[in-house]
Amino acid sequence: MSSTQTLPPILRNRINKDLKPFKSSPPPGCSLLPTENVLVYKATISGPPNTPFEGGLFHLNIQMGMDYPFQPPKVRFETKVFHPNVSEKGLICLDTLKPKPVGSWSPAVSLFSLLTTLRVLLSNPSWDDPLSEDVFESWKDGCWEAKAVEWTKAYAMDKENDVPQEENVKEGKKRQAEEEGDAKAEPLAKKSKNEKEKEHEKESVSV
To answer: Is the domain of 36 the same as that of 53?
Structure first.
């Protein structure tokens, strides 16, 4: 499924509405990129400052169903993160991602607000309902923060592959400027060539 035009109107309009803010003013520290499947998106969240995740770039997979936004999307971390509310497989324990009455999902929740909430979750883990027993035990032993920093450095700081959102925006603008410059340069080049031909003709006549 490669085009939103193939989707039911309600779903298509909602997805387009969700994507609009990301094109002009995305949530701080977050980005959202499309895939070949219009119901699947790749997101990134930068680790919030003053947390064990600071400096890391965490990749997530977001998959919406045909019943979106009446049912929550399936979201999981693709980057390993040592967090009490994230399982080893990247599954996330968050009320916002659970339908009512178990959770608090509402069609009013947008992808913008969802990514914002997930970034807040990195800053404020919930220890009342941990998803990872190992992480919870490390917290009780007083070594969770050090372990989380270790994982962030090991799995979320691949500088060769992970480019912060701001750099992606700059690179995109740079490519656009280069393309516009090439488009303008082409007619100038043709003009310059014509001028040279005219000058050559004048020289031939004068000789």
So the answer is: yes
Whether residue 198 sits in one domain with residue 152: no
Other C-beta atoms closer than 10 Å to the C-beta of 178 total: 10
The string of pLDDT tens digits covering residues 27-51 is 999 999 999 999 999 999 999 999 9
Q: Which of 161, 178, 195 is the last residue of a domain?
A: 161
- Find the domain containing 37 and state its range: 4-161
pLDDT digits (tens, 9 = 90+) for 10-20: 999 999 999 99
Give the whole-angstrom CA distance, residue 92 versus residue 103. 13
Q: Cis peptide before 101, with omega less than 30 degrees from 0?
A: yes
15 shares a domain with 101? yes
Tell me: do 111 and 155 sit in the same domain: yes
- Main-chain dihedrals φ then ψ at residue 123, nearest 5 degrees: -75, -35
Q: Domains in the chain: how many in total?
A: 2
Question: 93, 118, 148, 156: which one is catalytic?
Answer: 93
CATH code of 119's domain? 3.10.110.10
Model-wide pTM > 0.70: yes
Q: Is 93 labeled as catalytic in the residue annotation?
A: yes
